[in-house]
Design goal:
Oligomer: heterotrimer
Distance between the termini of chain C: 53 Å
Shape of chain B: globular
Structural class of chain B: mainly alpha
Helix content of chain C: over 70%
Radius of gyration of chain B: 21 Å
Chains: A alpha/beta (253), B mainly alpha (353), C mainly alpha (307)
Structural class of chain C: mainly alpha
Largest sheet of chain C: 2 strands, antiparallel
Largest interface: B-C, 48 and 49 residues
Order of helices and strands of chain C: HHHHEEEHHHHEHHH
Mean pLDDT of chain C: 87
Number of domains of chain C: 1
Helix content of chain B: over 70%
Chain lengths: 253, 353, 307
Amino acid sequence: MSEVLLKAEAVAKHFGGVKALQEVSLTIRRGEIYGLIGPNGAGKTTFFNCMTGLYVPDGGGFVFDGAPLIADAPHQAAERGIARTFQNIRLFGNMTALENVMVGRHVRTKAGVLGAMFQNAATKAEEVAIRQRASDLLHYVRIEERADDLAKNLSYGDQRRLEIARALATEPKLLCLDEPAAGMNATETAELRELIEGIRRDGTTILLIEHDVKLVMGLCDRVAVLDYGALVIEDVPAVVQKDQRVIEAYLGA
Amino acid sequence: MSKWLNPRSAFGIALIAVALLGLPFVAAMGGQAWVRILDFAILYVFLALGLNIVVGFAGLLDLGYIAFYAVGAYTWALLASPHFGLHLPIWVILPIGAGLACFAGVLLGSPTLKLRGDYLAIVTLGFGEIVRIFMNNLNAPVNITNGPQGITLIDPVAFGDFRFSGTSQLFGLSVSGPIKYYYLLVALAILVIVINLRLQHSRIGRAWQAIREDEIAAKAVGINTRNIKLLAFAMGASFGGIAGGVFAAMQGFVSPESFSLMESIMILAMVVLGGMGHIPGVILGAVLLSILPEVLRYGVGPAQMALFGKMLVDPESLRMLVFGLALVLVMRFKPAGLWPSPERKRELQEAGQ
Amino acid sequence: MDIFLQQIINGLVQGSIYALVALGYTMVYGIMGLINFAHGEVVMIGTLVTITVAGSLIKAGMPVALAGLAGVSASVLVCMALGWGLERIAYRPLRNAPRLTPLITAIGMSIVLQNLAMMIWGRNYLTFPPLLPKMDFEFAGANFTAIQVIIVLVSAATMGGLLLLVYRTKLGMAMRATAQNPAVASLMGVNINRVIAAAFVIGSALGALAGVMVGGYYEIAHYQMGFMLGLKAFTAAVLGGIGNLGGAMLGGILLGIIEALGAGYIGDLTGGFLGSHYQDIFAFIVLIVVLMFKPSGLFGEKTGDRA
């Protein structure tokens, strides 16, 4: 198995005349926590959306786990092992927390219409397994006591955790978190950090987009900085932190 | 879920069963016309639950549902009537009708299901009209559908020698055609209810609900939204096809007039007014909207004569007016329908067991 | 060749009417994302009001021109009031409801208006009073009538007026701002309620004019005439790119011409298998094809949804 999990090669995306991404190339290695930072509008989320298939890049592409990712096929990204959360939480609000995670099992299960109609043994067993796995994941992110509450009624922090549990349910090789700490207080951020480290320990590579520079520098093994859609630097936090261009990008030279 | 019913719900089910069994004989006291009304109410329950998979579960607004019903009806009419001299048996025709309707659904759905919901509404509406126009006009130069006159003398449903038309002696009772169809339709309706229930709480059912709630998030967790939507669309269409076949056989006659846009809207209204996605609500909607207009039809005319001594308002237009107003008022004051699912109570109980 | 020209002229006339009706759909959709199914019924009521007012005034001995003017004015006023009332009573309370809700309300209002019209005007076809002298012109082997010329001219003038309104007045700016982003527009001091009401009122006035012209063109009217007309006009709006005024106009004219040519040539194209009574399917086929290959319409901008 190669050490590289994801390789972005000269990914470009523009909206009308605006160049949201200019030939961004970067490499995420297996088992690391990789940080992607940059000022507002630097193209972080656009990069994310290109990678997870929501946008079709105008140039370049991604190689994931040894094979190219197909553009414009978000469901295939999940199938290949890329799961994500959203900057502005996107849960299935009128489904329970448990059901949200059960939906996450969709891509790793296969019961179809006929199975549902005839309720054969395989379908029933699969359904039990889905439920069990979903409960376990709720336990893992420590919101098991909210299992039967509608997702929309969960607290903000719990919703973030639920989104992570749902993403983990797809058995990702790469978990992408889009500003998971946004809007969290210090305690919640500390707990989140613990959770992310735990997920990595359990073998999942993590891509973290974050505004909170302190969190990123403390948590990530390597960090990439985007500014005006272009990659400024990709290195370990200690180097990135001292880089003059990064300081300028953040302070606005 | 427990495997055994508790005594109370077992008693409830027994009660409903007895009522369902006895109902047509009660209705027959008012004349066979009322049994026929009952038949249609159950047929509409079947249709509405078929559409519920599309609209209620998958959240796709289908305004051309009647087209699939028409495909099923014409399939039966053409394969079992003197029109082409064909008289195929039910287990050949019904699958063909369902299959053709399903095929039409996939054909229409595959290019359009990626569109925004209201575009889909318009496209399906247009499709419904296209189908109707073809049925109206495919009588020349080759006579396929017999045009506006429709097709007559269609074979009834029959299993071997047992025909559902005409009166027969069963268990010492004299059972009329409409009563026999009633039991057939109830059996079909129960089947579609069970399918609805099982689908709702399945992997596919959850995927439908997820798409309804947030399509982008659904894609992100790996749901192939287009295929899953297409599945709902095709299933709804197949049920429409089956209902159409039974309709043609029961009526013995089909013409394009039965498949107007208004019929599509009526079935949609049953789903929406009753409570989208909530099976008892949809059943209620279908029964209400198929029986009430008949009551209005039989009640309004005489009531006006009695009150004013003359007909002030044509009962037919009053019926439609009331229907339109009901749509508007229910959307305004009970947008989730008359009998929406009781705040997901069932899920909570299930998880507690 | 003259059949071709003739059908182009017929298509242009029919298309001008579609365009006027399409504007009503596109304005409302552009601003609030609603398919106002009842718009076709507004057009129908516009026709029937003209018939009643102009017809009875002519019977009372008023000069035809004056009676016609009164009929048209009455129809425009009634439809504007109707459009305003529809928005105020049926749609406004549902502004924050899920998308399906107002759509079903719109279908409900369409049924209500149709049946009210049937109660008022009856089930039968009504004859449109002859407001214009019958005049025929000939051009390069194709015939056209005075009413056809007037339809094209009035439509063009009305659409020009609408473009001036939308691009040169403060109300127009407010409408465009609301279409872009209602929340921001309202923060900038735009009265959203007024803008939406204006879209309904203006759209209905255009619809009334279209109704008068349809009546004058076909010389008969009927309580069910609005639905199919509305549907086709909506198709025209989608064809041009919904929410786009210029698109609705071009889409309308294009659809009119496609229909006319289709009806004129379908017999030849299919070797006599399908005849001109298939005219109505062209609009829907066009709709399906456009939505398949260019869902944003011929002149619409591509809008991606944001994650």
